[in-house]
Amino acid sequence: MLPGHVAYGLGAQYGLRVATVTVIAWERGTAVPSEYELKALAGVLWCSPAELLTGARTLREHRTAKGLDQAEFARLLGLTGEAYRRMEESGRWRGNDRQSALLTKVLGLTPAGFVTVSGRDEELAGLLREAVTTRWQARVRPVAKLVPLEHGVVQDVLEQLHTDYQALMAPIPSRSGTGRGTGAGRSTERTGTAGDAGRAFLAEVLERFWRTAGVHGPQV
């Protein structure tokens, strides 16, 4: 169905005045529909909200995909409606261990999915970048507080990531007698290549962390 037809259907069936450009923005992921707009969109497209939110990342998106309102979802997690509402609006999960276990079970989350839904991906990525570029041992405890993994697993993964990153950045000893200017040229080339590889490593350090830990995807 073309975006213009979708916009027309939203108006005709649900009384929503939505511009075609807005529908296009929803499709491209540059804008997010409200909860009611999402339900209406699912109705127009003859599908469930969950089918439109296959890449759900936030508490609201996951809740809506389950077809639950805030009060229902809060009860499932053992929270008051007001406490859950504040978490959803802030994008930060602040439940205790029991509530976090319920959240993981209800949404079918992997450890990676739990960190994403909790709104802590950037915080974790920052700690991981520090771990691979400085002393990884000092980052074990703060990382272990964020991720639902055993302390020993976190330690092993950080050590491995640190080793991999440092190996990328390690300079190659120069060799004498290889020709005038050749050593300097190769050194410059190596430095540039290592710099590019290092930046790429840091950019995807979060994905590398989960792969090294054996966690694949946000949901089980």
What can you see in these coordinates?
The chain is an all-alpha fold and 220 residues long. The mean pLDDT is 85. The relative contact order is 0.08. Helix 1 (3-14) packs across helix 3 (35-44). It has 14 helices and no strands. The radius of gyration is 24 Å and the shape is globular.
Observed structural traits:
single chain; 220 residues; mainly alpha; globular
Provide a concise account of the structure shown.
Helix content is 66%, strand content 0%. The protein is mainly α.
Number of strands: 0
Specify the number of helices: 14
Report helical residue fraction: 55-70%
What coarse outline follows from CA principal-axis ratios? Answer: globular
Let me know the average pLDDT.
Answer: 85
Rounded to the nearest angstrom, the radius of gyration is 24 Å
Low-confidence stretches: none
List the helices and strands and how they pair.
Elements: H1 3-14, H2 20-28, H3 35-44, H4 49-52, H5 59-65, H6 70-76, H7 81-90, H8 97-107, H9 111-117, H10 121-133, H11 140-146, H12 151-169, H13 182-203, H14 205-212
Helix pairs in contact: 1-2, 1-3, 6-7, 10-11, 10-12, 11-12, 12-14
